[in-house]
Amino acid sequence: MLSTTVSTISRLHHRRWVGLGLLAFTLLAVGCQSPSEDAGASVAENQAQPEIDWFDGTVEEAFATAALEEKPLFLYWGAVWCPPCHYLKDKIFTRPEFIAQSRKFIAVYLDGDTDQAQAWGEKLEISGYPTVLILDPQGEEVTRLSIGIPVEEYGGVLDAALALMRPIQQVLDEVLAAGAQNADSDALSLLANYSWGQDRVLELSTEERFGVFQQLYTGTPAELRVIRSHFLRHLLGAGAQLAGDDERTAPVLTPEEIAAHRAAVLEILGDEELRRSNSDLVSFASADVVGLLEPEPGPGREELADAFLAAGAALEADESLGIMDRLYAIYTRLEIVEMRLEEAGQVDEDGNVLWPAADLDHLRSRIAWANGMVTDEGELQGVMNLMANLLTAVDLGAEAKELIASRLEETEAPHYYMGWLSSLEEDAGNHEAALDWSRRSWEAAEGPYTRFQWGSGYLRDLMRLAPDEAATLESNAVAVFDELLANADAFANRNYSRLGSVDTELRQWGAESAERAAVEDRIRQHVGARCDDFEAGDEESPQSRCRAFGDPDRDAS
Prior knowledge:
By secondary structure, this protein is mostly helical. 58% of the residues lie in helices and 4% in strands.
């Protein structure tokens, strides 16, 4: 199904989605404004919106100022190349009401390429771009805001955070203890708009989240219908995940719950306010919800599927919405059509659905419309990603390649789309062209972490697509690691995660021959020779992490 997994790796290999209970626009992860080349650059030098009074100083100074002035912090973590970040930048951060409200906070824009940004990311337990945190004046996390909050509701969620200023764990505990029916609406609003997919605080299992959402949905008063609808959205997302567990034998929902939730979903789909407020439910979860509430083919299943189709079409046609919101709604049609084609056996020998010409023509016409509307390079950075995802979702990779190539240099971060072209060439079996684009994407990337992300991606591509080019791998690995090791946070957060992927693939590659093993050892020794430059400490210290990679004789387990 179109809504099964999500990829936030260095290059987006096609469009992939996750269930809405964890998503709410985790359209994949990621930024704003070119990073400064000055390693000591302040947070403000990377800001994307001058209208917002982004803090002019370091993160440490921002926290100190917040404590001194007793003001909470609004911290936005992003990156230049990240398409979803541009949604926030263009649709939220430019709104006068948001800008006015931001004055109540110390507003911090932390670009992922800022000096020590990855160390701060690890300290704050944030990794995926974009992430938005609200912290109290003492720097303690209050909540993580969902990226999918509708623009017209964003201000109310900020008001709720300001009114409560308590950690989300405490808010949840209080609401569950008192019952959602007795809870303050601000507390319910924070929970409904919490970024559950980026949670690092509550750490609930899917089963536990499902139980929590059941209590919140059933207990929330009917007059808080928007908040209540959000809890249903989360409930259905968690339910769909549980239903997809092959080891599960007990039903996720009772027949009575199915009937009640089905009626509530139909109300959301047919109501303009609720539909817009739950656009991620409409756009990204139609097949999951239909499968959960109508698991067997029949009239009931067709009625619910048709209701999703109508809701998606309504969002597509809503001229008050932005380009990306209207394009996202096309996924509803693709989800339902794919579900029906698979059920009817309309697939090729490889299991790929045979898309009807009418649906492909509709998609092409909407992409042509969107492509003709976008002129700003920042907006194009986000819209291009979505257009290419839509085309690859229906196996039109060649058209995605043509579209990207036609406007590559007009995007704000062309290296990101060079990575896209590499992926598309690889999918077409053109390994030489894929490696060329992968190398070019690394060479064009800017900013210390971004360069390591794309540089390490190029190394992995070399091992996979040209495994016998050992000398090429070695020389490029030295160049990539030399750049990385120039940064104090070389072994923090996203850097460390990316290094782990290289570590695994390098070990597998080196195990294939004595020549490769010798190259692997030299690469590791090259890194290991620099480990004394980094801070020592426990096994998670930068020096220990460096040695874990740089020691060629270490235990691979």
